[in-house]
Amino acid sequence: MTHVIDMTADDVAAALAAGTITLVDVREDHEYAAEHIAGAVLMPLSRFDLAALPSDPEKPVVFQCHLGGRSARAVIYCAQNGLPIDTHLAGGIDAWKASGLPTVRG
Fold first, then answer.
1. Residues 106, 87: Cα–Cα separation, whole Å
2. Is residue 65 a part of any domain in this protein?
3. Domain for residue 34, yes or no?
4. Residue 1 has what pLDDT?
5. Element at 42 (helix H, strand E)
6. What are the phi and psi torsion angles at 40 (to 5°)?
7. Count of domains for the chain
8. This prediction's pTM
9. Cα–Cα dist 96/101, whole Å
């Protein structure tokens, strides 16, 4: 079984500010357009393309969605296909907002 590493909203925010991760939002276009985390790259899970994932070894990918389910599935999918991506934002954008962190609204 694939181990999914949970990252807290505060840890993701700090890593984004430091430029040490690439945040990939796996929600749908309309969700992203309505509200998203600044700096997140959109790559909806419904049309997930492993070849299109950012591949900077200095900035590992962290997945993010609404509540954490789709981002965990993205981690599992990557593991099943041999990609070393194992981390997601636990609780998704809802956890981000609950931590008082800002979002970009459509």
1. 27
2. no
3. yes
4. 67
5. strand 41-42
6. -75, 140
7. 1
8. 0.96
9. 6
User: How do the pLDDT tens digits run along the chain, 106 residues long?
Assistant: 679 999 999 999 999 999 999 999 999 999 999 999 999 999 999 999 999 999 898 999 999 999 999 999 999 999 999 999 999 999 999 999 999 999 999 8
- Kindly state the tokens that stand for 86: 């194992």
Cβ atoms of 92 and 67 closer than 8 Å:
yes
Instruction: Provide the residue type at 83 as one letter.
Output: L
Which residues have CB under 8 Å from 87's CB, separation 6+? 4, 5, 6, 7, 60, 61, 62, 63, 75
Measured from the Cβ of residue 33, the count of other Cβ atoms closer than 10 Å reads: 13
Instruction: Give phi and psi for 97, each to the nearest 5.
Output: -65, -40
> Does residue 63 fall inside a structural domain?
no
How far is the C-alpha of 53 from the C-alpha of 77, rounded, in Å?
12
Residue 60 located in a structural domain: no
Structural domain range at position 23: 1-49
The DSSP 8-state label assigned to residue 40 in this structure reads P
